[in-house]
UniProtKB/TrEMBL annotation:
Transmembrane among keywords: yes
InterPro entries: Longin-like_dom_sf (IPR011012), Longin_dom (IPR010908), SEC22a-c_C (IPR059071), Sec22a/c (IPR043546)
Annotated organism of origin: Ornithorhynchus anatinus
Protein name: SEC22 homolog A, vesicle trafficking protein
Primary location group: endoplasmic reticulum
A GO cellular component annotation in the UniProt record: endoplasmic reticulum membrane
Membrane topology: Multi-pass membrane protein
Keywords, alphabetical: Endoplasmic reticulum, ER-Golgi transport, Membrane, Protein transport, Transmembrane, Transmembrane helix, Transport
Amino acid sequence: MSAVLSAAVVRVRDGLPLSASTDGDQGAGGPDGRRLFKLLARKLSQLPDRCSLHAGRHVVHLISSLGVSYMVLCTEGWPGVLAFSFLDELQRDFIATYDTARTNTAVRPYCFIDFDTVIQRTKQRYNNPRSLATKMSLADMQTELKLRPPHMLTMAELAPANGFPAVVGAFSGAGNISSAQQQRLEPATLPGTVALVLSLLCGALNLIRGVHTIESLLQSDGEDLSYIIAFLLGMAACVYQGYLLARPTSWRSAKSFLTFGLICLCNLHLSELRGPWQLLFHVTVGAFATLQIRLRQPRAKAPGYDV
């Protein structure tokens, strides 16, 4: 079996695949390798510039530089010094071929697919030991790896945060890695932005009224302590609605309905202190924000984004 199975070039900031080997490597871990590459691509901005990930019978090594990451999938027993030498060659060839401005402004996945020719040529050379005439460069690489060894990744480190499901047991014999949802929401719309601003405004109004009520209580004007609690709870609910509008989290829809329910209860209790139009404004904003939270869902990767 070949030592180098597949390789990919990915942009660090957003995981956009720029180029990848296209031979498929059927029966040699190709599909599993693509899943590993996708899993790593989502975390590149959080990873050190040199890493290794052991996954069953395979190992993925990667290096990152100038906003671009280079990954290689190898068989388990293949020397790491050869893998990082392979990646170092890919890196030098890619930098010599494409400038940083082009990689930073790339929009389409695989827009540098012509680089696959270089990947295949380098892969064939490294899979034929007799063609390797780089003893000196390998010695230099071995010294560098001893001085600065790669960070050893675990599958647990790649698990997505914020409550989205992560399937990370593929290479232990318990199944395959499935695509986890990307940790981003759909682009903000104008109604969503308006809902965010109004929610924060309602939160500020509740805070101001709550402070005034506390002052009245301290002056013994007979204010009920429950009004203070209602104002503060209303403020917290409005601010949390703003958070749900802006950030992905688990059970967003359920949390938005519970938060809206709390807003309604607080305003019902405050009906003696607020006029009908004030109550209508707060409840309407809460309902509008709840709707926008429902509409702005976590987005999956765009079509064609798979490595």
